[in-house]
Specification:
globular, about 350 residues, two-stranded antiparallel sheet, ABC transporter involved in vitamin B12 uptake, BtuC, mainly alpha, single chain
């Protein structure tokens, strides 16, 4: 029997990871970094990976430095951070709901963030900061409604999924109505955002997401990871082990909503990454539990791979990253539902 890896942090905290889970997370991180280097090196001014790495380290020429740091790195950085936030947020949602379909795409939180952004764009003509604020407020408002309808002790299992599906349907109608009230230019901007796109992204768009990741990732991994693993065993078992169920569930739900909302503000409501990344991470690690760190890096790798594929699959045409993740994630969802039916779970 292999022993878990233990990494001790300041303040007496320690992080435990099974060796296989640590290896999967490391490989996903390396894959995300490698695809990012290839993405930076592509385009009308191609660069080899060694030139890209040298430029990232500050040893490139003036042309390479401008292209890498000003034009291509912001897009890659936004993709990596968005994927990481969606992967971690999806893992928390699936663990809290104890359901592989417990994704923000299905539970209505992505649609809630979208409603907040559309309100800012259509009603107020807001810029990037207003979009970020609208996304967060919309996500938090959706979370409050879902929590009110399920109850703090009911925010798990089938009840959470069914309530979330109903909220998602309502918000889809609201978003459609907001689009009909927009001017042509505002509607075009809103539709591009709703598709999920990284075109034209800069570090200003990703700055709120970077702050959210810096605060929420250590909080979730170091302070709530062990409690989340206990919650997966059931409320009775977790309560017997001393977990304050209501407080921990509320804290984790708030963290997941914020992660997904800030990710939506940075890149739009990119579909299915939050659903797929935790599932793939769990299958690769073969380890029970939420697999938070592998899911985070898996999300970053999936997002980066989808954006890279969208830019390269059809020469002369770029697909928005949300289109690529929707095609792949939709196929994965159909397969997952078929597998659940064969196993008798649905």
């Amino acid at each position: 029997m292999t022993r878990d890896l233990v990494i001790r942090t300041g303040g007496g905290l320690s992080l435990r990871w099974p060796p296989r889970g640590f290896a999967v997370g490391l490989l996903c991180a390396l894959a995300a970094f490698g695809i990012g280097v290839l993405a930076i090196g592509g385009g009308d001014y191609p660069m080899s990976p060694d030139v890209v790495l040298r430029t990232l380290l500050g040893n490139g020429g003036p042309a390479e430095t401008f292209i890498v740091h000003e034009l291509r790195l912001p897009r890659v950085g936004t993709a990596l951070m968005t994927g990481a936030a969606l992967g971690l947020g999806g893992a928390i949602f699936q663990s809290l709901s104890r359901n592989p379909l417990g994704s923000p795409d299905i539970l209505g939180f992505t649609q809630g963030a979208g409603a907040g952004v559309l309100a800012m764009i259509v009603l107020f003509g807001g810029g990037s900061l207003a979009v970020a604020a609208g996304s967060v407020l919309g996500g938090l408002a959706t979370g409050a409604v879902v929590l009110a309808l399920t109850g703090r002790n009911g925010a798990h299992g089938t009840r959470l999924v069914l309530v979330g599906i109903g909220i998602a349907a309502i918000l889809t109608g609201v978003n459609g109505y907001l689009l009909t009230q927009a001017q042509i230019t505002e509607a075009a901007r809103a539709v591009l955002w709703l598709t999920g796109s990284l075109d034209g992204r800069d570090f200003g768009d990703a700055f709120p997401l970077a702050i959210a990741l810096a605060v929420l990732v250590p909080l979730v991994l170091a302070c709530c990871g062990r409690q989340l693993r206990m919650l997966e065993m059931g409320d009775d078992a977790a309560s017997a082990l001393g977990v304050p169920i209501g407080r921990v569930r509320l804290l984790l739900l708030g963290a997941a909503v914020l992660l997904v909302s800030f990710a939506a503000a940075a890149a739009g409501p990119v579909a299915f990454v939050a659903l797929t990344a935790p599932q793939l991470a769990r299958r690769l690690t073969r380890t029970p539990g939420p697999n938070l760190l592998p899911s985070l890096f898996m999300g970053a790798a999936l997002m980066m791979a989808a954006d890279f594929a969208g830019q390269r699959l059809f020469p002369g045409h770029q697909l928005p990253v949300g289109v690529v993740t929707g095609l792949i994630g939709g196929a994965y969802l159909v397969w997952l539902l078929a597998a659940q039916r064969r196993s008798g779970r649905i």
